[in-house]
């Protein structure tokens, strides 16, 4: 199957138009006429992932986070991004990224489903399609009111992570929860406005965390990778279902840092 045909399948569900203006999604390295028989799916195009893709003789690498964000004035072996691009180019490997377009279409609802949130709605609306709101994050109700500490344990179990950071009183009761995987400080205002007791997020700064808690909303920072690694298996299943005759392999879950 040609790379351009696989791109068409992906973009039929995850149109590039849904991505934020600052984002860089789509085919970032490679040929659209490349014949694809094996795809490797990962969260980030780090050295280990690219080497694994090479060793597996993958024809295409699909990641959530784009390796190339801003304009590159040169591609050489003198910097780590250049070396990664050169390795993929030498191996004639197509590289495709689907970032905030996936966030808007799928990540928000998928992450909320992991928490079994009820009465879900979009947290930060960025666009509409056929009268249906789409955007970043979801907000809804937990199955039952729980303490903030119990909510933390539920997040850890749902996403298979060892630890979270918490802003707020561990003994307070939370019922209405908002979730936004990845960097999501832009959704804090919407979460407060929509009455969230707790915001579960993938990346929040010190000041944003204490300010949110001061306004009555607890914050659980589960880590960028901690929440977004669900992309990998979800896309493996999607591509396997959509692409007959193409083998799709998921990279193992491998957190980029350790809690000591």
Automatic annotation (TrEMBL):
SUPFAM superfamilies per UniProt: NIF3 (NGG1p interacting factor 3)-like (SSF102705)
Similarity-based family: Belongs to the GTP cyclohydrolase I type 2/NIF3 family.
Entry's Gene Ontology molecular function annotations: metal ion binding
Pfam (any one): DUF34_NIF3
Keywords: Metal-binding
GO cellular component: cytoplasm
Organism (species): Sporofaciens musculi
Protein name, entry field: GTP cyclohydrolase 1 type 2 homolog
PANTHER family reported in the protein's UniProt record: GTP CYCLOHYDROLASE 1 TYPE 2 HOMOLOG, NGG1 INTERACTING FACTOR 3
């Amino acid at each position: 199957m040609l790379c351009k045909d696989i791109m068409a399948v992906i973009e039929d569900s995850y149109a590039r138009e849904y991505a934020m203006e600052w984002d860089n999604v789509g085919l970032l390295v490679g040929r659209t006429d490349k014949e694809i028989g094996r795809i490797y799916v990962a969260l980030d195009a780090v050295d280990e992932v690219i080497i694994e893709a090479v060793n597996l003789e993958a024809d295409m690498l699909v990641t959530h986070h784009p390796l190339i964000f801003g304009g590159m004035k040169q591609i050489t072996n003198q910097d780590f991004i250049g070396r990664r691009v050169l390795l993929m180019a030498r191996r004639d490997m197509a590289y495709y990224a689907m970032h905030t377009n996936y966030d808007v279409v799928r990540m928000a609802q998928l992450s909320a489903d992991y928490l079994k949130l009820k009465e879900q709605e979009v947290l930060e609306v960025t666009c509409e399609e056929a009268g249906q709101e789409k955007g970043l994050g979801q907000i809804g109700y937990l199955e039952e009111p729980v303490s903030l500490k119990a909510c933390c344990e539920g997040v850890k179990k749902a996403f298979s992570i060892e630890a979270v950071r918490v802003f707020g009183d561990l003994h307070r009761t939370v019922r209405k929860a908002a979730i936004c995987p990845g960097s999501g400080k832009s959704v804090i205002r919407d979460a407060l406005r929509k009455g969230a007791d707790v915001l579960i997020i993938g990346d929040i700064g010190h000041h944003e965390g204490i300010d949110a808690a001061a306004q009555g909303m607890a914050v659980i920072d589960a880590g960028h990778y901690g929440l977004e690694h669900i992309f990998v298996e979800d896309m493996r299943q999607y591509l396997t279902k959509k692409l007959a005759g193409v083998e799709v392999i998921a990279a193992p879950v491998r957190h980029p840092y350790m809690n000591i």
